[in-house]
Amino acid sequence: RHRLDEAVQLLEAASRRVAKNESLRAQWAAALFRLGRPEDSAAVLRQLIADRPAYADAYDILYLQYMQKQRAADARATLLAKWEATRKVEAALQLAAHDDALGQRASVLAFVASLEKSATPENRGFLAMGDFWLHRGEDPPLLRVQRLLAAAARKEIDCGLVPIENFDETLRDLMRLVPD
């Protein structure tokens, strides 16, 4: 805990011995960042992403590091690369949330609408949540959200809209329940 230099050395040695262990490499990168070596950390993460493009955690750590350093363009590029590598709706919604936070609502709406064309049945629920999040407020839910709720009701699935204080936190909680 108080010997970060030694931890970095151990994590580096372990990462080189067990090169296929993405988690070790990600922990090594995180330790480098905490040690005040953000460029070394980013290099480890970029190499991890190049070696294992489907390993989503590397993108997430790199994104957070870029945001902490106020490098929003690099952070966005990282989320876009994650989306392009994984094609998971969760990655797309992260990108949309980032753009929305930076005030790029028009491009976010277009991006989420374009996702609808390639969505699988499992992903449509995420898209509906994304649509609802993007159109949050006092207005009635979007037609797609209403259709999703009606289809669930026809299948006797108990569902409905729940008023919540912070949709972003609730969505993160829900995402933790979804298997990879």
Structural summary, described in words:
- The mean pLDDT is 79.
- The longest helix has 15 residues.
- α3 runs antiparallel to α4.
- It contains 10 helices and no strands.
- The chain is mainly alpha-helical.
Question: Which features does this protein show?
Answer:
180 residues, mainly alpha, 10 helices, single chain, 74% helix
The biggest sheet, with number of strands, parallel, antiparallel or mixed sense and barrel status, is: none
| Helical fraction | over 70%
Give the ordered list of helices and strands. HHHHHHHHHH
Distance between the termini: 30 Å
Percent of residues in beta strands? under 5%
State the secondary-structure class: mainly alpha
Overall pLDDT: 79
Total strand segments: 0
Name the shape in a single word.
Answer: elongated
Question: What would you report as the Rg, rounded to the nearest angstrom?
Answer: 19 Å
